[in-house]
Amino acid sequence: MQGAKLLEGRVVAAAVHERTRQRVDQLRRRGVEPAVIFFRVGEDPASELYVHMKKKRAKELGILSEVIALPGSTTERELLTRLEEKNRDSRIHGILVQMPLPRQIRVETVCQAIDPSKDIDGFHPINAGKLLLGDPSGFPPCTPAGICEIFRHYGLVTAGAEVVILGRSNIVGKPLAALLLAKGPQGDATVTVLHSQSRQIPEHCRRADFLIAALGRAEFVRGDMIKTGAVVVDVGVTRLPDPALPGESRIVGDVHFKEASQVAGWLTPNPGGVGPMTIAMLLANTVKAAECFAGCGEG
Ligand SMILES: Nc1nc(=O)c2c([nH]1)NC[C@@H]1CN(c3ccc(C(=O)N[C@@H](CCC(=O)O)C(=O)O)cc3)C=[N+]21
């Protein structure tokens, strides 16, 4: 057995972007200019890169975007004041606050401060609740939604399958479990969520028809933890110094790619897998917010 087929997030993301661009054009014909605000607090090279990529993509799709970069010393109150301004601004359809945030700013407070109808990350408790209840009017979190979109694109059906998720974060593990439990061809799964206190992790993993690694530990998933022919999705992003290029870093996922590619049936590359999907779903959510605002939503 060798040579897992690649789940090319970059290709799927391009298809999502194309549909988003058509929706932007439709909105513009009706006089609505979709617009998004990206808040960034403090100096973090990775955050700067991510926000830059989001802004560049938004521009390509005809979505207006503005980056508000605040100093690392910004207080929670100051950030909330800036958020409230944008909540009230009817020209703005989407608001994102880039994570991670400096210590003095609480993530929960910030997530609750964003108007749920502009919460394109899907982090507000209202949107988290809608997700859990299967109410499609909310915003699904972008990384989990992107993973389901990859499955849909490649015709991979999770209905009835054993899905094992490694990691229980509020951003990936928990919302992904909710999406995969929902009714539908990219749902209806038997979901197991593993975490740092779980026992017999390799045994659980070996039972998985779909294995999603989102725990943030470099190359945690080895070949012997994967069922032959399984679908393996690597969400992890650990930056390690690149031995080949001194001073540079390289991305290492949560999956040992080489070993996994000998056993898995399908595998996401990393980079080029889940990452581009996160941005694609973020901009799709922005357009959904603008459509809802304009009263022409697709639901
Ligand atoms: N409020 C908030 N929402 C987010 O969605 C959010 C966030 N904060 N904080 C950080 C994480 C991370 N994230 C990524 C987006 C794109 C790539 C991506 O496109 N990565 C490229 C590689 C880029 C590179 O070279 O580093 C790839 O995987 O091919 C990765 C990671 C969004 N995040």
Automatic annotation (TrEMBL):
<comment type="pathway">
    <text>One-carbon metabolism; tetrahydrofolate interconversion.</text>
</comment>
<dbReference type="InterPro" id="IPR046346">
    <property type="entry name" value="Aminoacid_DH-like_N_sf"/>
</dbReference>
<dbReference type="InterPro" id="IPR020630">
    <property type="entry name" value="THF_DH/CycHdrlase_cat_dom"/>
</dbReference>
<dbReference type="GO" id="GO:0009086">
    <property type="term" value="P:methionine biosynthetic process"/>
</dbReference>
<keyword id="KW-0378">Hydrolase</keyword>
<dbReference type="GO" id="GO:0004477">
    <property type="term" value="F:methenyltetrahydrofolate cyclohydrolase activity"/>
</dbReference>
<dbReference type="InterPro" id="IPR036291">
    <property type="entry name" value="NAD(P)-bd_dom_sf"/>
</dbReference>
<dbReference type="InterPro" id="IPR020631">
    <property type="entry name" value="THF_DH/CycHdrlase_NAD-bd_dom"/>
</dbReference>
<feature type="binding site">
    <location>
        <position position="237"/>
    </location>
    <ligand>
        <name>NADP(+)</name>
    </ligand>
</feature>
<dbReference type="GO" id="GO:0004488">
    <property type="term" value="F:methylenetetrahydrofolate dehydrogenase (NADP+) activity"/>
</dbReference>
<dbReference type="GO" id="GO:0006164">
    <property type="term" value="P:purine nucleotide biosynthetic process"/>
</dbReference>
<comment type="similarity">
    <text>Belongs to the tetrahydrofolate dehydrogenase/cyclohydrolase family.</text>
</comment>
<keyword id="KW-0658">Purine biosynthesis</keyword>
<protein>
    <recommendedName>
        <fullName>Bifunctional protein FolD</fullName>
        <ecNumber>1.5.1.5</ecNumber>
        <ecNumber>3.5.4.9</ecNumber>
    </recommendedName>
</protein>
<feature type="binding site">
    <location>
        <begin position="167"/>
        <end position="169"/>
    </location>
    <ligand>
        <name>NADP(+)</name>
    </ligand>
</feature>
<dbReference type="Pfam" id="PF02882">
    <property type="entry name" value="THF_DHG_CYH_C"/>
</dbReference>
<comment type="subunit">
    <text>Homodimer.</text>
</comment>
<dbReference type="GO" id="GO:0035999">
    <property type="term" value="P:tetrahydrofolate interconversion"/>
</dbReference>
<keyword id="KW-0368">Histidine biosynthesis</keyword>
<keyword id="KW-0560">Oxidoreductase</keyword>
<dbReference type="Pfam" id="PF00763">
    <property type="entry name" value="THF_DHG_CYH"/>
</dbReference>
<dbReference type="GO" id="GO:0000105">
    <property type="term" value="P:L-histidine biosynthetic process"/>
</dbReference>
<dbReference type="InterPro" id="IPR020867">
    <property type="entry name" value="THF_DH/CycHdrlase_CS"/>
</dbReference>
<feature type="domain" description="Tetrahydrofolate dehydrogenase/cyclohydrolase NAD(P)-binding">
    <location>
        <begin position="141"/>
        <end position="291"/>
    </location>
</feature>
<keyword id="KW-0521">NADP</keyword>
<keyword id="KW-0028">Amino-acid biosynthesis</keyword>
<dbReference type="GO" id="GO:0005829">
    <property type="term" value="C:cytosol"/>
</dbReference>
<feature type="domain" description="Tetrahydrofolate dehydrogenase/cyclohydrolase catalytic">
    <location>
        <begin position="7"/>
        <end position="121"/>
    </location>
</feature>
<comment type="function">
    <text>Catalyzes the oxidation of 5,10-methylenetetrahydrofolate to 5,10-methenyltetrahydrofolate and then the hydrolysis of 5,10-methenyltetrahydrofolate to 10-formyltetrahydrofolate.</text>
</comment>
<keyword id="KW-0511">Multifunctional enzyme</keyword>
<keyword id="KW-0486">Methionine biosynthesis</keyword>
<dbReference type="InterPro" id="IPR000672">
    <property type="entry name" value="THF_DH/CycHdrlase"/>
</dbReference>
<keyword id="KW-0554">One-carbon metabolism</keyword>
